[in-house]
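User: Predict the structure for this protein chain, please.
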Amino acid sequence: MKIIAMLIGATLIIAGGVMATTKQYPVAVVDWNWVSAKDFEIVRGASEQFYTSAFVTYGKVAPSGAEKEKLHIEITRATLDRLIEELLVRNEAEQEVESLQSKIAEKIKSVDSQKLQNPVREMYGLGIDEFRRRVLEPQALQELLAATLAATGDSLTARIIALKKAARVILLFPGLLWTENGVELKSK
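Assistant: Here is the predicted structure, written as structure tokens:
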């Protein structure tokens, strides 16, 4: 019996180590699906890169000190909210939209990878494949779901509000909480 317990313990330690090094542990659990730390960090990094690039492009001085920290916290909150919303939309689209994967591929196939490669790297810090996965596919999903819902007299906005209200979300991220409106900062 002790050997079995030791084997189970060793397996859990190894699995935990693998999850920690690959960042495949959750930062949010959404209706028994999860948003991984890896996905969160990639999207938050791209968002921060976008803001940095925007400041440079428009000749603005990037915030520093307390303002920089406020921006970082807001990007963190907005990123987690966006990833949760994308997960809810993906789950809904899989139920509502026929031939979803082929329709997504059709929507984004016209994107000229060669022309976008450098601007995407500069603005988001992402390669073109990662950009397709993190930006274009979620946008295509929303557009496809919106079109399907519009055909039945429903709107994407109304559906997302309903999905957020019904979602069971557990945030594993300090300083943030889930409400029916999405991710919000905890009051101090």
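Residues 15-19 have pLDDT under 50 and may be disordered.
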